[in-house]
What we know:
It contains eight helices and five strands; from the N terminus they run H-H-E-H-E-E-H-E-H-H-E-H-H. By secondary structure, it is an alpha+beta fold.
Amino acid sequence: MKRILPLLLALGLLLVFPASCAASADNERRAPGNLYESDAFKTAETADAAATDGSPQLPADRRIIRDAELTVETKTFDDALTALDKQVAAAGGYLESVDTAGDPDDYREAELTVRIPADKLDDFLSAAEGLGSVTRKTVSARDVTEEYVDVESRIAAMTAERDALTELMRSAASLTEVLEVRDRLTQVIADLESYQARLKSLDSRIAYSTVTVTLREVELISSSEGGFWEEVGAGFVNNLARLGKALRGFAVWFLGALPWFVFFALIGLAVFLIIRGSVRRRRRRRQKAKENTAKEQSHE
């Protein structure tokens, strides 16, 4: 055991040191394995500035994650959904999730999350803008090159450490040494799998952009180019149409429930007549009892 501990320590230092050197000079110091505390999410402009001020040069092939959000107003909700589905398929993407609110008798809204190949993102956004009137559009980009290189370096270091520990365990001279090496090997394998999963996630987000598309059904499409009063007028018309649909829905519900109202009204009327009849009978009995008492007193 005295022989195996120095070997483990030396092996860990030799394999972790290259990974630390490969990380960017402006990353915060952190313990091995604590990747998620790093400030690796920098913009491309900031990374360029760092590279020109004496910091290590980043690879020319940058790793960029691009995402987008799009809000579109449309008068033909069903047609817009169908067209959007075709546009996603044409771009080679896929639908990740969809959340639809409302019903055909009311104005509907759908929020769709789609994944689009990064090199087709701009073309997809241009096509999606043709679904109606775009009221909001945002496109974001994050340079994750430093984080990507850091994760790759850690995977390489841990792979080498895993192989070295495997060989070391085979040559262990005692059961205690085997157990000591096995514990470290188990931890290294777990960390290695975690970094591999992180790298896979980064690859997926780099290769496929996440686009959130919100489709809103309206009566009158508002145009930001028409000025303030046109937007106010469009909002007034849309809200007036919503109020009309709400009143129509209430009328449909009320008329549909009218038989129940009649049924409960008849039951209420029957209960009222029964109670009123009972009260009248009691009054007559009391009145008759008073008259009988008065007659008895007169005879006396």
